[in-house]
Write a structure and sequence with these properties.
The complex is a heterodimer of chains A (383) and B (461). Chain A has 383 residues and is of the alpha+beta class. Helices cover 46% and strands 13% of the residues of chain A. Chain B starts with a helix and ends in a 5-residue tail after the last helix. Classes of the chains: A alpha+beta (383), B mainly alpha (461).
Chain lengths: 383, 461
């Protein structure tokens, strides 16, 4: 186990010309590489196949989302957050809307809260399905990708029917929802739950007890709970290291406290445990969705919010449990219609810090597995 | 002119391979046939792999170019030939240029000794299997040079992995092969035959590819079932090692897409890249041929010594070999090539009827019907007795190799990829000791069988 505090910085200045003579080799992975999940660039320092250290170079997808917020009204900025973690746009929207609601001191009506939970949990599953497919693909199993994408399609269909968009949904508004759920929404969600339950077993059948999968993931990219906390790592990665921290339980938001669900926790903090934790989260999400669909109340879906939002002067931090970890928004209001400063705490960006710790001493192939298991989305890392 | 015709015809009566009979004309014909057949097989394999893999992964695969994407491999080949041929500025040009040819040469040359039938091989060498293993391992040279000449990191790592992998799995492969070779002579006293019908193997075993199959025929057992379960273990070892040897999933580390982009051929494009592709697929067919020849009875049909009740079949043509057995099973199995082609044709017609009824699909539908008709016609021709007698062995050999090809595709659709150190562990720590133990056990079993026949013969029976 490498202590993150004692990691020596990488020497990347070694002349490259003599790499055939030297034992050490500095190679560049990305930004165009099939397994770096977008435009991540990793500079690897290798001894043969062994990783001596690595450095991440990010920013290839930087769009200045936080700066844009300063020139938009609170409502106008809402669609921009969908473009950060584009595979979990609903979670991003939920976090932003709840933060502004906290600033405005309004609360979404109960019906809106329930629909928000259903959509967010569906989105968590969609995000995990994408993670599972690509992670397995990185490790060489190409078939799960097509199974997960087939089933993710059903979730996206529900999104599309609800708000017209599949990925960057912009599903929520500050103060509730713009749209009432369409006719038959509950039935369709219930059908989906019944449809996807056996499919999750199907993914597990392909991988969970597969000998090669076990060898490739057990003991790979180990990180202790202590190191996770030191580096600020959250989400399934933290939970797989044995720390029972889920913001849905720890600092309940939306109406998660009304639902009965467990927090899956791993022990070893390796790639396999992270896989198991996420697979268990699929089932917990289904549990939450089932309860939410049963208990969905009638009523309005939009609270009373002013047309022109001028929150009181002040600052607020609010975080939610996004599929990838703690997604926090810090908003400073100067009393005008536009935020003075918006700062996003993206889980992918913080989790990516752990890559070096997790990869030192492992092999090149493990770097790929670890990038996959961290479940990063570069849109969120770079913002 | 007459002499030339005589020279050409003189081979037809012989019961040896063209190389064995020393007939250059027929050897050339066979080389062209094998080369052409191999190219067709690679094209077919490309299409089949994409279709079968697609159906395993709930998608359709190529559907646009030709009916059910049948022309897709040809379109791809044309695309590859027309692509710009890039040689990186920093590459070692001569070696970069030569590398793909080494790989292709090695992959194709091994087919010189592959026996598609007792006489259907380009030549028969008394060191046939050794020749195959030796030449096929030359392709490592091409891969290493390709990786080195690219003067780039990813190809270099890919080449290093590849050479380490191929060298270490050749050891396991060799041990499995040796155990099969021992079976050609050991434990055959009971059958009254020591060795096989081959001249070279009267006293000891044989390394000749044809001789090995003849030994299985003479002993009346496929080596996969001999000294059960020793033959089966050897076969299993070879089946694992051959996947690693050809760099296919789950041992496809040298070209691990997600790690090394494309491994040793990252810098290659167009025609040169297609040569690597061609070599990979023909190497797969080559090692499958070795496995089929050594353990699954080569060209022998299933149950080669069971003939069934003798039946009188009215002959329109006189049989090619008057002394051939005329059992019911012989007759039924001889019809298999024709029936399988008829079934393929029927499948085409079934799909013709399922094609969308839209004017845009008219050409495709007609094309598929035509393809089905050609397949059915081939099937009908294969029923003609003289043809039937001559292609039976080629059919059974190809059918067995096709089974292996399907396995390759199946592995690729199911397994994740091994890591480099784990791969080495499997090779050196599991397969190698197993192979050595197997060798000793095969020898002991064989000696025991022979000694008990020789000294205690009669007592036991």
């Amino acid at each position: 186990m490498t202590d993150p505090n004692t990691l020596s910085p990488l020497d990347l200045e070694t002349p490259d010309k003599t790499f055939l003579d030297a034992n050490e080799l500095v190679i560049n992975m990305g930004p165009q590489h099939p397994a770096t999940h977008g435009v991540l660039r990793v500079i690897l320092r290798l001894d043969g196949e062994k990783v001596l250290g690595l450095e991440c170079v990010i920013g290839y997808l930087h769009r200045g989302v936080e700066k844009i917020a300063e020139n938009r009204t609170y409502t106008m900025f809402n669609p921009y957050v969908d473009r950060m973690d584009y595979v979990a746009a609903v979670s991003n929207g939920l976090g932003y809307c709840e933060t502004v609601e906290k600033l405005l001191n309004v609360e979404a009506p109960p019906r809106a809260q329930y629909i928000r939970v259903i959509l967010t949990e569906l989105n968590r599953m969609a995000s995990h399905q994408l993670w599972l497919g690509t992670h397995a693909l990185d490790i060489g199993a190409i078939t799960p990708l097509f199974y997960t994408f087939r089933d993710r399609e059903e979730i996206l269909k529900i999104f599309e029917k609800y708000c017209g968009a599949r990925l960057t949904t912009h599903a929520f508004r500050i103060g509730g929802l713009q749209y009432e759920a369409y006719d038959g929404f509950e039935k369709e969600v219930k059908n989906f739950v019944n449809f996807v339950k056996p499919k999750i077993d199907e993914y597990e059948e392909l991988l969970t007890t597969n000998r090669i999968w076990l060898e490739r993931t057990k003991g790979v990219g180990v990180i202790s709970g202590k190191d996770c906390i030191a580096l600020g790592v959250t989400g399934p990665v933290l939970r797989a290291s044995g720390v029972k921290w889920d913001i849905r339980k720890a600092l309940p938001y939306a109406n998660y406290k009304n639902f009965d669900f467990d927090i899956p926790v791993g022990q070893n903090g390796d790639t396999y445990d992270r896989y198991i934790v996420r697979m268990a989260e699929f089932r917990q999400s289904l549990r939450i969705i089932e309860q939410a669909v049963e208990g969905i109340p009638a009523g309005p879906v939009m609270a009373k919010v002013p047309k022109v939002m001028k929150p009181p002067v002040g600052e607020v931090y609010h975080s939610i449990e996004a599929p990838k970890g703690e997604l926090g928004y810090f908003i400073v209001s100067d009393g005008s219609t536009q935020p003075y400063r918006v700062r996003v705490r993206p889980p992918s960006f913080v989790n990516l810090q752990a890559l070096d710790v997790m990869c030192r001493g492992q092999l090149v192939a493990d770097v790929i597995a670890v990038i996959g298991t961290l479940d990063i989305v570069l849109g969120e890392v770079d913002r | 002119m007459n002499e030339l015709m005589q020279y050409i015809q003189s081979y037809l009566g012989s019961d040896r391979t063209p190389g064995g009979a020393g007939n250059i004309f027929w050897a050339t014909v066979y080389i062209l046939l094998v080369f052409g057949g191999l190219s067709v097989a690679v094209i077919a394999m490309n299409w089949l792999e994409r279709k079968i893999l697609a159906h395993m992964q709930v998608r359709l695969g190529p559907m646009r170019v030709g009916p059910h994407g049948l022309l897709q491999p040809i379109a791809d080949a044309i695309k590859l030939l027309l692509k710009e041929d890039i040689i990186p500025a920093e590459a070692d040009k001569v070696i970069f240029w030569i590398a793909p040819f080494i790989v292709v040469l090695a992959a194709f040359t091994v087919f010189v000794v592959v026996p598609f039938g007792p006489t259907h091989a380009i030549t028969d060498m008394n060191i046939g299997i050794l020749f195959m293993l030796g030449v096929s391992s030359l392709s490592v040279l091409g891969i290493v040079t390709a990786g080195w000449a690219s003067n780039s990191h990813y190809p270099l790592i890919g080449a290093l992995r590849s050479s380490a992998q191929m060298v270490s799995y050749e050891v396991a492969m060799g041990l499995a092969v040796v155990s099969a070779i021992m079976m050609t002579s050991l434990g055959s006293l009971a059958t009254g035959l020591y060795g096989a019908g081959n001249v070279d193997s009267q006293v000891s075993g044989t390394l000749s590819m044809i001789g090995i199959v003849q030994a299985q025929q003479a002993q009346g057992v496929w080596f996969v079932f001999k000294f059960f379960p020793l033959g089966l273990i050897a076969f299993g070892m070879f089946a694992i090692a051959m996947v690693a040897e050809t760099n296919r999933a789950p041992f496809d580390l040298p070209e691990a897409e997600s790690e090394l982009t494309a491994g040793f051929h990252t810098e290659y494009s167009g025609f040169r890249w297609s040569l690597f592709f061609l070599a990979e697929y023909s190497a797969m067919i080559a090692v499958s041929s070795i496995a089929v020849t050594l353990w699954l009875g080569g060209w022998l049909r299933p149950f080669p010594s069971v003939h069934g009740p003798s039946i009188a079949i009215p002959h329109i043509w006189p049989p090619a070999d008057p002394s051939a057995p005329t059992g019911a099973l012989d007759f039924v199995l001889a019809l298999c090539p024709g029936i399988s082609f008829l079934l393929l044709g029927a499948m085409c017609f079934y799909n013709v009827q399922r094609m969308p009824k839209h004017p845009l699909f008219k050409v495709q539908t007609l094309g598929l019907a035509g393809f089905g008709a050609v397949l059915a016609l081939i099937g009908l021709i294969l029923f003609v007795p003289p043809v039937r007698d001559r292609v039976g062995d080629i059919f059974w050999f190809s059918a067995k190799v096709t089974g292996f090809m399907y396995l390759y595709i199946w592995y690729r659709g199911t397994f994740p990829r091994y890591r480099f150190d784990q791969l080495m562990k499997v090779g050196w720590k599991i397969l190698l000791p197993t192979g050595l133990a197997l060798l000793i056990l095969t020898a002991l079993f064989g000696m025991r069988a022979d000694i008990s026949t020789q000294f205690l013969g009669g007592l036991g029976q």
